[in-house]
Amino acid sequence: MTIRAVLLVIVAVGWWRLPAALAAECEFKELAPSTMRRAGVLTVGVAAILAMGSGPLLNALEVDTETFRIATGLAVVGLGLARVLGWGLAAEAPEDLANGWVWPVAYPVLIGPELVVVAISVGSDHGWLITAASALVGVLLASFAAQKCQSPGGWAPRLRSIGVRGAGVVLILLAVALVFDGLRDI
Amino acid sequence: MARSRRTRLGLHLTAWAVGLSVFRIGLIPPQQCGAFDEAQVTVAIDRAAEWATSNLDESGRFLYRFDRSTSTDLGGYNLVRHAGMTNSLYQLVATGEQRWLAGADRSLDFLFKRLVDVGANKLAVAESGREAKLGTAALTVAALVHRRRATGDTNNDDTARALGRFLVGQIEANGAPLGFFDVRRSAPVPGRYGAFATGEAAWALALLGTEFPTEGWSEQAGRIIGYVANDRRSNESYLLRQPDHWIAYAMAELGPDSVNNLPGVPDYAGRLAGDFALMSRVEPQRTGTGIQDTVRLGQALGAGVGAMGEGLANLTLVADGATAIGAGPLQGRAEEVAARLQCTASLLIQRQVSPDQVMSDAHREVGAWFTDDITQVDDQQHTLSALISTRRILFSDDEDPNL
Question: How far is the CA of A164 from the CAs of A21, A105, B109, in angstroms?
Answer without folding.
Answer: 10, 15, 71
